[in-house]
Design a protein that fits this description.
CATH superfamily: Sodium/glucose cotransporter
Number of helices: 15
Largest sheet: none
Helix content: over 70%
Distance between the termini: 38 Å
Shape: globular
CATH topology: Sodium/glucose cotransporter
Radius of gyration: 23 Å
CATH class: Mainly Alpha
Order of helices and strands: HHHHHHHHHHHHHHH
Structural class: mainly alpha
Length: 390
């Protein structure tokens, strides 16, 4: 209903503008590294480029650029990981150089921490509207299924490669003398990939490989920034402006309105940068906003016939509310109420609990509202007969 649209749009706007914000910061890191531009100026330049490109490119251009970006990212990390691994001494070196806890299942932590780290990204990917937008842009169902399959495989491989590269390289740069120009502290660890690109020859990456890594970083920043500005601006345009404000809006009016929204959301993303201590804090908060606010209701619509509209709306409101409350309290308290490592656990837990309880306490939705999500059961004879027609 309209409340689901409004609340869902609010969730996406808050989460996605936060994600765009740390793309701006990443761009500042890159420009500072390669051109010695002050980081704050680099952030402004990155913001201006991403906002302008998103406003005037549209979905087709962004999808086309994503294909190139994906190829560059994959090529760069696939080449860099083995170079660093073997140049620094291979398995024998890392078995000694790395903290022994790295080779245990949960490290120095427990399964609760592991769930706190795992669930934000997992739930985000299950409810990430950019993915749904791109899957629905496929020419047919077969193409969409193929895209989903390779998306899962590619995500696992590329993310594992990026994490491995970061761990291998950081073990070297952090182990140097503090006075060395190549030393990288724990506080600067979020720059590790860019640091590796800049000083790649120290760990076995040739200059061309370092350039490729920097290109991959730029590809990630622009691709993510574009996609995560386009999605909330589309939501506001379709679910708020067209639905409630101007139902008879022309295509030209819709395009102009969306471009204005891209600009305003980009400005909001820049302002959000000042509210978080690190990129990781921004990421966990944004991922939890989507993962706790949208994903439970979305999956329930696909998988649970008994879920009701009231349950879904209550779930969205609860997931969003708990995430915002914890984030606000963390910002005003001397010590965080709950660190971002664990923020998803109460937020998603409350969202799922409310979804189930409210759905069971309210009248079931009519069959025609949910049956479209489920394949109609047929007998074996009917299935064989239907198949013979193909």
């Amino acid at each position: 209903n309209k409340w689901a649209r409004i609340l869902g749009t609010i969730v996406i706007v808050i989460a996605y503008t936060t994600i765009v914000g740390y793309q701006f910061r990443g761009g500042g890191f890159v420009l500072n590294l390669i051109a010695d531009i002050p980081e704050w100026q680099g952030v402004l330049l990155t913001a201006g480029f991403i906002i302008a490109f998103t406003a005037f490119a549209g979905m087709l251009s962004i999808v086309s650029v994503d294909i190139i970006n994906g190829a560059v990212i994959t090529l760069a990390v696939v080449i860099a990981v083995p170079l660093v691994f073997f140049n620094l001494g291979g398995a024998d070196h890392f078995s000694v150089a790395l903290d022994p806890s790295f080779f245990t299942f949960f490290g120095d932590y427990n399964w609760i921490w592991a769930m706190g780290i795992f669930m934000p990204t997992f739930l985000l990917l299950l409810g990430e509207s950019n993915m749904y937008q791109k899957f629905f842009s496929a020419k047919d169902e077969k193409s969409a299924k193929t895209a989903v399959f390779w998306w899962v495989i590619g995500t696992i491989l590329v993310e594992t490669a990026i994490a491995s590269l970061a761990i291998f390289a950081f073990s070297y740069f952090n182990g140097l003398d503090v006075a060395s120009q190549y030393f990288l502290s724990v506080e600067q660890s979020e720059r590790i990939i860019l640091h590796t690109a800049r000083f790649g020859t120290e760990v076995g990456i040739p200059v061309i490989g370092g350039l490729l890594l920097i290109t991959a970083a730029v590809a990630i920043i622009t691709s993510t920034g574009n996609s995560f500005l386009l999605a909330p601006s589309t939501n506001i345009t379709r679910d708020i402006y067209q639905r409630f404000i101007k139902p008879d809006a022309t295509d030209k009016q819709m395009i102009v309105f969306q471009r204005v929204m891209v600009l305003l959301l980009g400005i909001c993303a820049y302002l959000l940068l000042t509210q978080f201590r690190s990129v990781l804090d921004m990421a966990f908060t944004a991922y939890t906003m989507v993962g706790a606010g949208l994903t439970p209701a979305l999956l329930a619509a696909f998988l649970w016939k008994r879920v009701t509209t009231a349950g879904g709306v209550a779930s969205i409101a609860t997931g969003m509310g708990v995430t915002l409350l914890i984030t606000f309290l963390n910002a005003i308290m001397e010590e965080p109420l709950i660190t971002t490592d664990y923020i998803v656990l109460p937020a998603a837990g409350a969202s799922i609990f409310v979804l189930i309880v409210v759905s069971l306490l309210t009248k079931p939705d009519p069959k025609e509202k949910w049956e479209k999500f489920y394949a109609k059961p047929v007998s074996l004879e009917e299935a064989i007969k239907e198949q013979s027609k193909l």
